[in-house]
């Protein structure tokens, strides 16, 4: 047994896998972020703020920063109100059909922002097939009511309200039941108890939810691209996009300087979240038992009606408008039995080459990213948790950065890191699909890792040690113990990664090249080219694919740690 | 041949409080050694060091004659030929009983007829031949323990390490499973190290008991010796509920006994051959004390009826004592006379 006489005795397989994970994380996550900082702050190798000051001396940049703050803060305020009210009602009272309500409320977050924006444009605009059906469409020729700051704020608020909902709901579930019961025993009505006890105690959760909504809002591309660009209302993210797509790689230092400020803004929002992360270890979270379960009595039916009406208005109506647009013969024609047609679907699927390619590209890229990240997250989690590897623990923190940063920031970092030809191979990844894959791997590693880590925390570490005592090496234990036991959590992570990558536009808007379009890019280009009906058809198909994947995830939910699937919160 | 040898092993997680401090221990081939200690005594660290889940900061560990840790060497658990029974049993829920038991063979590349025969033999040895196709979740607590034991047995380990396997069970199951462990040990002759905080369990099943406290090894002895001849006041107080009282040895020991003055009485009590005269401590077990017509004056502070016996808490000559006397000899009086029938002079 001691025949090898290894001096340190570590399993060589374990070391090799750890080294592979380090190389992987450094290449896809740390390198792009480092390159971005270098390009913006020290383009010549030494600290040099001339690029920075030049970029920020422009009036356009400063105006975009101001607009970013206005729309993000406005959106966050709406998210905060909607998410908190919904979380309070669904968690603390006896409204019925909670699972369905939550699914409906989470849906805007799971649907791509560019699809949401497109749906609202169709629902509210002068050309709205749906409004024409009931005769309420704005007069033709008037500007679209959602174009500009108001529309961006509204949609950012709706899109990110689920993030606040998740944070507040988690906080409510950890709230000790006795604190609320003591208030009731002291004579506090439910509303009074919410105002005086529950909301004050939800401080950290509200801060965290608001921080997350803010960071997501400043990094959002789809909504300001669809609602801002046509009105000339530019925020930082769309400014970066316009500069880079207009002038190409030579403006990289300038956009890097803008991106660094965007990253700083995100850091402020992230600090708010940290307060909660420190308190919230999955292992100490107790579930459900804490909620008081107030009976609404005769108010139940009106409150339920209000909730369903809200979901109908913000989720169902825009989607119906989208479907209606995808079905009418020509944009602007009212939808009726005579004008309904499937020709746009046939067009995008069989005639418009880019869409077919985009379906293949998005499926392949999202599938590859999901598969690779699923495979990588298990050894990472096992090393960090069961094997107490400090290196792996650092890696799991580093993996958070690319996801926490706004997508455009990461995309610029990836371009900077992989624009030049690779050493040894001598080929550049720029203008290939691989650069998109690298960005996906960096950005979504943490999405795959979190469910696996949560699943691992529920498994007795003795199961691994027993296998080790039985003579199994690290790689063999991974294959026979960790992977089979973690398969459901891995699948959940894979579904979340696939969904997010499949619907993604922010990163690929900067990284795509001809022939390497993603679905998000195609919807965006079609709408920009005025082909609204075709854009709507593609969008409807992506929504259908998203819904199908969410339902597959729900079917798995029984075998998953609680809270892993956001739409099953 | 020695099963396991620990030679001056230390393990410290922080500078001030060593989890294990300079421990030397020999586990003989084929014996069942219990390591007894309170929680935090270092007993689990000791077990995990032998298994290879921890590395010693000093000292050497040898298993079946080969050095596995110390002097710059470290053999990881998977190459130590150990069997381990976890408190949770750690049976893999995604494998059936046969595959759970066969896993150590599988990990070593044993296949085909050899694999089948050895797994079947192990199943038979623990009387679970009919349960090979079941999942561990479908077994009772006792059956799970047997699967865990069979998983150790299948690869003929140099030593089987058991980490409080009975601690989480209810009292009835504990009794029957500890009997199963003893008969498993008797029938297989496996070398076993058993970690527990329960002294009754340790005394009942072990060939020898090692008492561990604050990371130090206090005594290693057969259960009878541990009870009758504790090596220190700490062991006397921890094992068997003895009272330790000051005394004066009046003469040199002869024939295993020595004259001693204790509680104001002069008696001849058992002593270590090298026991010097002068001040000493005496361990008095509850059954060593008796109510007599003449003797030291004592006061009963508490009386607990136990059926055939009565337990008395007493003070006598300023010492607190505990006595267990036959119910027929007990009186209701508070003031009694106390005699010493037996006792052990704790060696210095």
Question: Notable features of this structure?
Answer:
heterodimer, A: 569 residues, mainly alpha, MetI-like fold, 2 domains, disordered N terminus, B: 348 residues, alpha+beta, Rossmann fold, 5-stranded antiparallel sheet
Looking across the biggest beta sheet of chain B, what order are the strands in?
Answer: 7-8-9-3-10-11
* Overall domain count of chain B: 2
Secondary structure tally: strands of chain A: 0
Q: Beta-sheet strand percentage of chain B? A: 35-45%
Q: Under the CATH scheme, which class of the largest domain in chain B?
A: Alpha Beta
Q: Classify the fold: give the CATH topology of the largest domain in chain B.
A: Rossmann fold
Assign a percent range to the helix content of chain B. 10-25%
How many domain regions of chain A? Answer: 2
Please write the CATH class name of the largest domain in chain A: Mainly Alpha
Number of H- or I-type helical stretches of chain B? 8
Portion of residues in beta strands of chain A equals under 5%
The main pleated sheet of chain B reads as: 6 strands, mixed
Would you kindly provide a written description of the structure presented here, covering whatever features stand out?
The complex is a heterodimer of chains A (569) and B (348). Chain A is globular, with a radius of gyration of 25 Å. In chain A, helix 15 crosses helix 16 (353-385) and helix 16 packs parallel to helix 20. Chain A is built from 25 helices and no strands. Chain A has 2 domains: 11-42 and 342-569, Orthogonal Bundle (MetI-like fold); 49-290 and 297-341, MetI-like (MetI-like fold, Orthogonal Bundle). By secondary structure, chain A is mostly helical. The model of chain A is unreliable at 1-9 and 279-289 (pLDDT under 50). Chain B has 348 residues and is an alpha+beta fold. Chain B has 2 domains: 2-228, 3-Layer(aba) Sandwich (Rossmann fold); 241-346, no CATH class. Chain B is 24% helix and 39% strand. In chain B, the strands form 4 sheets. Chain B has a 6-stranded mixed beta sheet with strand order 7-8-9-3-10-11, sandwiched between helices. In chain B, strands 2-1-4-5-6 form a 5-stranded antiparallel beta sheet, with helices on one face. In chain B, helix 2 (97-107) runs parallel beside helix 4 and helix 4 runs parallel beside helix 5. Chain B starts with a strand and ends with a strand. The mean pLDDT of chain B is 90. The A-B interface holds A 1-2, 4-11, 460, 462-463, 465-473, 476, 480-481, 484-485 and B 51-53, 63, 66-68, 72-84, 86-88, 90-94, 103-104, 106-108, 151, 155, 161.
